[in-house]
Amino acid sequence: MNFLKALFGPSRKEIWRQLSRELEGQFHDGGLFGHSAVQAPSGDWTLTLDTFTSGDGKTNQTFTRLRAPYFNPGGFRFDIYRAGVFSGFGKALGMQDVEVGHPGFDRDFVIKGNAPRRLRRLFGNATVRRLIQAQPRIQLSVKGRDGWFGRYPDGMDELHFQALGAIKDPARLRNLFDLFTEVLWELCHGGRARADDVPFHIRRVSAPGGRITNKYVLWEGDGPRRDAAAALGRLGDAAAIPALADVLWEDDAVLRLRAVEALAAIRHPDAVGPLVPLLGDARKAAGLRFRDGVAEALRQLGEGELVVTVGAALGGDFGRLKVYDGPYRAGIIAALGHALEGSSGAHAANALAKIHAVEALPRLREVRRSLGARDATGQAVSAAIGKLEARAALPRAAAAADVEVDTLPRSAQAPGPDPGTLPRSSQAPWGGDPPKAP
């Protein structure tokens, strides 16, 4: 073995194991017949280096590949390879040849893409060009959601490199990891990202959550999103409110809680509306009732009275709710609707009936189909539906501004009333005779 090592140098497995240590990553040993891999973190992404074999079973070839899933909502695509190699690749994807304005680079490489301006910005980065030129063989591309990519969440694509042969050159391998880091920063953040950059963190929190696994964990979205939500709260910019509101109903309990805390920290009136419906959320976060965290956030935003009003209603006391005339009626109705399937469901149903919330009928019917009418909540839901349906069926008075005197209903046996003798309110806005009909 020592003789072979002296003759051929370190094995690929040894080189890759050492590379994983240098990158503070992880080495996956594929054993005698399997494919080994190196995984290393880079920003919000996981870079995975491995090999694969392609062929017809008789003549097989080994390729080295490096890949990194990333959030690509704009669907930007490109392929780059050395001129004279892979001719015609990418045409089926509707991409066009693009010159990026650097003559030597344009001469040595074929560049295809679906957004020429973004391509020129990407390859306008001198570091990206230098790292690409250092690769003797390269095919670097963005792969879309086709084939096995169907497992990726919406908006996710993959930065993908492959080259023929099993690469053993440590310098070339380190160069590839540096190239991926630089390209991903350009693709996702325009090459600029600072800890106090609000748009940067909005993009991070808006990316999909969850995990992508294929032999190894290729990507995890929850951690970066949680960090981004906390950062947005620290920065306190109201521009982050819509992005934080969008994640309030996600499955990741920690992310939800971070978003609630961030909205409270921003201390802007627009942060109140998205939080109010969550007062009826019966889920837990960090082992506690999620709605308790929401209530605390609303108190910090100056809406303690609203919290007391909804809390009392969910406890069976509807007095405050019946006289509520604030701006968040729709949010309160949504909160009561979410509470229907929790422990306070019967009180929530009764509350909706008490405030004549006919707009809650679709939600009540949905819950009745789910629960039936066997327990106290189901019975309360059915009773609320009956009351609200009866109210919804009542004829509505026309608006006063739409009614003219000569269109009032008349008895068939009597002449129409003299407009001057019609009763009028003592609060009428006019001082003498009522205005004449046009």
Notable features of this structure?
438 residues, 18 helices, 42% helix, elongated, disordered N terminus, disordered C terminus
Overall description:
By secondary structure, the chain is an alpha+beta fold. Helix content is 42%, strand content 16%. It contains 18 helices and 13 strands. The strands form three sheets. A nine-stranded antiparallel β-sheet has the order 1-2-3-4-9-8-5-7-6. Strands 10-11 form a two-stranded antiparallel ribbon. A two-stranded antiparallel ribbon has the order 12-13. Strand 10 (211-214) and strand 11 (216-220) form a beta hairpin. The termini are far apart.
What's the SSE blueprint?
Elements: H1 2-8, H2 12-22, E1 26-28, E2 37-42, E3 45-55, E4 60-71, E5 78-82, E6 96-97, H3 103-108, E7 109-113, H4 116-123, H5 126-133, E8 139-143, E9 156-164, H6 170-189, H7 198-206, E10 211-214, E11 216-220, H8 222-235, H9 241-246, H10 253-266, H11 272-275, E12 284-285, E13 288-289, H12 290-300, H13 304-314, H14 319-322, H15 329-339, H16 345-354, H17 361-371, H18 376-393
Antiparallel strand pairs: 1-2, 2-3, 3-4, 4-9, 5-7, 5-8, 6-7, 8-9, 10-11, 12-13
Helix pairs in contact: 5-6, 7-8, 8-10, 10-12, 12-13, 15-16, 16-18, 17-18
